[in-house]
Amino acid sequence: MKKYFWFIAASCFALFLTACSSGNENEGSVDKKDSVIAQKEEFKKAEVIDQVTIKLKPAESYALYVPSTYDPAKKYPLVLAFDPHADGRLPVSQYKELAERYGYIIAGSNVSKNGVSWEDSKFIVNNLYTDVLQRLSVDSQRVYMMGFSGGARIANGATILHSGIAGVICAGAAYPAVNSENPRNNYVFLGIVGLDDFNYTEMRKYDLVDLAGHNLKHSLITYNGKHEWPPMEIMNEGFLYFEFQNMRKDLKNKNDALVNQYYQPKLKELDSLMNGKHSYAAYQLCRRTINFYDALVDLKPFYDAYNILKTNKDVDQALQQSEKQMQDEDKLKQQYLQCFQTKDVSWWQKEVKTLSQKAQNSKDDFEKHSSARILSYLSLIAYIQTNGALAQNNVLAAEQMVKVYLVVDPSNNEAHYLNAIVAVKSNKVKEVYSSLNKAIELGFNDKGRLENESSFVSLKAEKEFQDILGKLK
Question: Which residues lie closer than 8 Å to 78 by C-beta, 6 or more apart?
């Protein structure tokens, strides 16, 4: 599961701005480097490079994809990606087709991850930013950031403070790793979140409330999914958001064929929803489409529909109900949080069974997705509680928490891996091996982590432990 970066003191703002050389000084220095085309390096094109070592920081690296159309004599938009587990290859490989389609360079940090302080993260971001812009031919006006979960918090925090970033895509989390009372407004923000993601309410609040008072273009995309990097067809909306914003900045860049390719289906969808009297869905479509296609197409059909729908009683009722449901879900999460310290495993089994049935069978869409989100939230809290108990070497508390973890998320390989650690501390060797095998069966494949886990030192010489290591890459 994922840990999270929370707001930290504003005292590090100036340090980050200095490290990134933001403002006009930064933009001038980048432009100067970009003009020296002969200094740009040649990288393999149309191929994911797992590890590019940062020249000025050899201990750090990033995964890289350069589109087949890359020519050092031209300049290309760049996306810097941040995964919560320092797996830069994951977003780079997952979205390489989009990079190829739109002619982007993607670089994914192999260093930035959950658990790294913002103080260190800002230098990791700057090292990546600087290395890519020095070595590849990048359009310094079109540098974007992208992140998932804890990586989204880093991407958002860096974007807020760095004037050289044109936009950010935050998937699965929104609140930035650093708080700023006066964030810049000359960038675009796009949030992407699955309907079953435990951070769904956070994402909605950030888009509807936190950004509402700021003069920047922002939107939120939801889809049927959980807490994970979005599928490629959903992330395509993110690349379109960047493309359309670039067209708006200078209409000479407008690509009518690309705009109409995605706009025309929206017109048909609007007609279908209006004819079917799906007022709330039509209202949401109008808001998203006006946001995405503003200044690029004739939006009269959507404005006309929106002006009718915004006074529609069904839409008003749906908006009020949605707000209440979000508040109720947050309250329920807080109640469950207290139950970790007061309820036994048998109580959790009954509660999880009820939530699971609702998540699978409820005919009420909100109840269905809300129950799934709460289950994911409980999994996150159980993970945090178990890890916290282990860090304090409180074996009894860890035993209790990991049992709850296994109840709320039995298919999570992390729960079984942590159960193996708890088992070895409780001298239950057979349970250690059964838990590790189950973790591997469910997808655990981090051989380095298993080899370096200090709790397993006494087992390393045993054949059964070596057999388990042999199953991992």
Answer: 104, 105, 106, 107, 132, 133, 136, 138, 139, 142, 143, 144
Q: How far apart are CA 64 and CA 41, in angstroms?
A: 13
Sheet holding 217-223, edge to edge: 49-54, 57-65, 105-109, 76-82, 138-148, 167-171, 188-194, 217-223
Half-sphere exposure of 101 (CA within 13 A, CB side): 14
Residue type, 28: G
- Nearest in space to 126 (alpha carbons), one of 142, 112, 105, 137: 112
User: In a 3-state reduction of DSSP, which class is residue 50?
Assistant: strand
* Whether the Cβ atoms of residue 456 and residue 439 lie closer than 8 Å to each other: no
pLDDT at 8 over 50: no
CA atoms of 430 and 312, how far apart (whole Å): 63
Query: Binning pLDDT at 50, 70 and 90, where does residue 184 land?
Result: confident
Classified by CATH at the fold level, domain 343-470 comes out as: 1.25.40
Report d(CA 15, CA 35) in Å as an integer: 28
Torsion of CA 393, 396, 398, 403, to 10 degrees: 160
Any idea which fold 10-253 has?
Answer: Rossmann fold (3.40.50)
Contact yes or no for 435/423 (Cβ under 8 A): yes
Question: In the Cβ-directed half-sphere of 5, how many Cα atoms lie within 13 Å?
Answer: 36
Give the length of the chain: 473
Domain ranges of the chain: 10-253, 343-470
- Tell me if domain 10-253 and domain 343-470 are identical in fold: no
- In degrees and rounded to multiples of 5, residue 44 shows phi and psi of -60, 135
Q: CA dihedral in degrees (223, 227, 231, 235; nearest 10)? A: 70
End-to-end distance of the chain based on CA atoms, in angstroms? 21
Q: If we measure between CA atoms, which residue out of 71, 93, 77, 176 comes closest to residue 132?
A: 77
Report, as an integer, the average pLDDT of 70-76: 95
Residue bearing tokens 């946001």: 291
Tokens 């999914």 identify what position?
225
Task: Flag whether pLDDT at 293 surpasses 70.
Answer: yes
Amino acid at 160: I
Output the pLDDT for position 2: 36
Residues 196-225 pLDDT 10s:
999 999 999 999 998 987 888 999 999 999
Q: Is the pLDDT assigned to residue 149 strictly greater than 70? A: yes
Cβ atoms within 10 Å of 320's Cβ, excluding its own: 10
Burial 131-156 (b: 16+ CB within 10 A, else e): bbbbbbbbbbebbbbbbbbbbbbbbb
